[in-house]
TrEMBL record:
Pfam families: Peptidase_S9 (PF00326), Peptidase_S9_N (PF02897). SUPFAM superfamilies: alpha/beta-Hydrolases, Peptidase/esterase 'gauge' domain. One of its GO terms (cellular component) is cytosol. Keywords: Hydrolase, Protease, Serine protease. This is S9 family peptidase. The keyword Cell division does not apply. Signal peptide: none annotated. InterPro entries: AB_hydrolase_fold, Pept_S9A_N, Peptidase_S9_cat, Peptidase_S9A, Prolyl_oligopep/macrocyclase. It comes from Arthrobacter cheniae. Residues 492-692 form the Peptidase S9 prolyl oligopeptidase catalytic domain.
Length: 695
């Protein structure tokens, strides 16, 4: 299907007024639309399903994932009793028991009540203590509304109080690191000129205890049109150093090492990922790189001793080289080994590499087919457990299990999530669709074991296809209860499908590169090919096929709406990009030019406009039923693109368009489990009723 090119000037947009995020008139419009959507979807039956989803999210039997710092294991937890959550810690013996005893460190609900701010937990930055001493100081990261902008406050782990007169960085999209017990490296909003066009810090200052941000010494700075600046202090004993990163865009960066009072560039390709671990420099090129007469493939992993590299040595060891079916997803160092997490046709594989044996590798026997399993170090500096690793295993019908193991020994299950639905009724299959250019594109199908291939099954197709993010198997009680277990009047269960389209990272950087900029349509063609394959195989029919996506996935399903409306009966579009003419001017949009292109350059707008759903709507097309949902406090994508898309569709006289905006919750669309349950339930309810004819 082709579309006329959009030539209207930005100022001719009749819905620009909705870009005033907190304006009275736009918020009045939001509340009116929210009421219409809730009136249509919220019934007593809906509320029962919402409670079922909330039970999953609030379950006290789920795995309390923990991070080890010193002798303690720290966990942040939300449940029905702790809506905003509690931060707590315990010992290993207690954690490994069936009923751990936790020490409460911070009650975010109580803090919010005391301070009159609905704080949302965003993490903690620990200060490394002197060897042998317990951890005592930490920076707590708290968002006032669930957005990316957060406040950093120094907290004492002995007194369990915020440090009086301690570090307290005001709410902003900050990038902060401990430089020592009395110093921070702070990238934040220092006032005019201190942020990049992407709304992130462009300068980093040295803030001593008791110092003033406005007069703090400048330490590092990047160009305003780059994405962000960051300085990190590596406090590893024996390898203390400062590292600065100039993130030019999402995929290119320059990494510097502080030497002799100046920043020294680490001379590798700008599109390579760079990390330092003790004596090692690790490089993962995103495109083929020829150095010293040797070509290293995109997606490989290269290792060299840092001091040798800085002295001019380029004798990298390629410890991983991809093949057409296998890609590197992540890596983690224990004390003596390097763990590689791989995907082979979107099923996990884990390799253990031994530097002492010239990087020989062994396969960790822990990865069943069609499952996702990730391994990472517990604490590489622990004297007794430096080679221990966590192992997280999950599958669509396999509740997640947390194992702990030691390299060279066994791994043991420590915690398992409960079952939230009757998994035995269902089966997982992997299929491959053929896209319009002949590329084979994998997808997972989860449906009833007795699934009839007669086209009569309500089916939900989900995907993302961007930013080299891989969509992998994972257990979800929310999907199980919200979709798989629901049945039609004739007893048909819902079918859930997860797409592994180009633009993602399932097959490494090449899979991502294939759908960038002018090739963006390949991601959409892949998704459409999967939709067509589901129909051709008899799993479903267009009237019974819905799709859903969030963020970049919202842009994906927005293009399904405008370019492939004949393939779908309903579309749920969450926290989306949709106005690709103005996306670079909204929230953090400027930082995504490397993914989509720059609409302010005429030659790039020529192709960007062809996947801008806001500009592709036409009067002569029958569109699927559509729910567009977002959050007011989302400061990454922002709510305005969703607002404008819904408003334009309604202004066109389209009847089957619903809109909902959570008044808090950030880019996740929800700031707590209750809000998340409402968000999930509303999307599932809309899709089910729209596909089965009851809406």
């Amino acid at each position: 299907m082709t579309h006329p090119m959009e030539t209207t000037a930005t100022t001719d947009d009749p819905f620009l007024w909705l870009e005033d995020i907190y304006g009275d008139r736009p918020l009045e419009w939001v509340r009116t639309e929210n009421a219409l959507t809730e009136d249509a979807l919220v019934t007593s039956a809906f509320e029962g399903r919402e409670r079922g989803i909330l039970e999953v999210l609030d379950s006290t039997d789920r795995i309390p994932m923990a991070g080890k710092h010193g002798e303690h294991y720290y966990n942040f937890w939300r449940d029905a009793e702790h809506r905003q959550g509690i931060w707590r810690r315990t010992t290993w013996d207690s954690y490994a028991s069936e009923d751990p005893v936790w020490d409460l460190l911070l009650d975010v609900d109580a803090l919010s009540a005391a301070e009159g701010v609905e704080w949302v937990w965003s993490g903690a930055l620990f200060l490394r203590p002197e060897k042998g001493d317990p951890h005592q100081r930490v920076l707590l990261v708290l968002s006032p509304d669930g957005g990316d902008a957060a406040r950093y406050r120094e907290f004492d782990l002995e007194s369990l109080t915020f440090v009086e007169g301690g570090f307290d960085i005001p709410t902003a999209k900050s990038r902060i690191s401990w430089a020592g017990p009395d110093t921070l490296y702070v990238g934040t909003d220092f006032g005019p000129g201190s942020l990049t066009s992407s709304s992130y810090p462009r300068m980093v200052r040295i803030l001593p205890r008791g110092g003033d941000l406005d007069t703090a010494e400048q330490y590092f700075e990047v160009d305003e049109n780059h994405m962000t600046a960051l300085v990190l202090h590596d406090s590893t004993p024996g390898f203390e150093r400062d590292i600065a990163v100039d993130s030019i865009d999402f995929y290119t960066r320059r990494t510097y090492l502080r030497q002799n009072g100046a920043w020294r560039l680490i001379g590798v390709p700008e599109d390579a990922s760079v990390s330092l671990h003790r004596e090692w420099l690790i490089v993962r090129p995103r495109t083929d790189w020829t150095d010293n007469g040797i070509t290293y493939g995109a997606g490989s992993l290269l290792v060299v001793r840092l001091d040798s590299f800085l002295a001019g040595d380029r004798s990298f060891v390629s410890v991983f080289e991809p093949d057409p079916a296998t890609s590197l997803q992540s890596w983690s160092w224990t004390r003596d080994y390097l763990l590689l997490n791989l995907l082979h046709d979107v099923s996990s594989e884990i390799r253990i590499l031994d530097p002492a044996r010239n990087w020989e590798s062994d396969i960790l026997d822990a990865c069943p087919p069609l499952h996702s399993v990730d391994a990472y170090a517990v604490d590489d500096e622990d004297d007794d457990a430096g080679n221990d690793y966590w192992l997280i295993a999950t599958g669509f019908l396999t509740p997640s299990t947390l194992h702990r193991g030691t390299i060279g020994g066994d791994h043991t299950a420590i915690k398992s999530s409960p079952s939230y639905f009757d998994e035995d009724r269902f089966a997982v299959e992997q299929h491959f669709a053929v896209s319009s250019d002949g590329t084979r594109v994998p997808y997972f199908q989860i449906g009833a074991k007795d699934l009839k291939l007669d086209g009569d099954n309500p089916t939900l197709l989900s995907g993302y296809g961007g930013f080299e993010h891989s969509m992998t198997p994972a257990y979800s009680g929310v999907i199980g209860r919200g979709w798989l277990e629901r049945t039609t009047e004739s007893g048909r269960h819902g079918v859930y499908v997860l797409a592994n389209i180009r633009g993602g990272g399932e097959y490494g950087p090449q899979w991502h590169h294939a759908a960038l900029h002018a090739n963006r349509h390949r991601a959409y063609e892949d998704f459409a090919a999967i939709a067509g394959d589901l129909v051709e195989r008899g799993v479903t029919s267009p009237a019974l096929l819905g799709c859903t996506g969030r963020s970049n996935g919202g842009l994906l399903v927005g293009n399904m709406l405008t370019t492939y409306p004949h393939l779908f009966g309903a579309i749920s579009c969450g926290v989306p990009l949709l106005d690709m003419r103005r996306y670079t001017k909204l929230s953090a949009g400027f930082s995504w030019i490397a993914e989509y292109g720059d609409p302010d350059k005429p030659e790039e707008w020529e192709y960007v406009q062809t996947f801008s759903p806001y500009h592709l709507l036409r009067d002569d097309v029958a569109y699927p039923k559509t729910l567009i949902w977002t959050a007011t406090s989302d400061d990454r994508v922002g709510p305005v693109q969703a607002r404008k898309m819904a408003a334009r569709m309604k202004e066109m006289g389209l009847q089957n368009v619903w809109f909902h905006e959570a008044l808090e919750g950030g880019h996740a669309g929800a700031a707590d489990n209750r809000q998340a349950a409402r968000m999930h339930a509303m999307s599932f309810e809309f899709l089910w009723r729209a596909l089965t004819g009851s809406l």
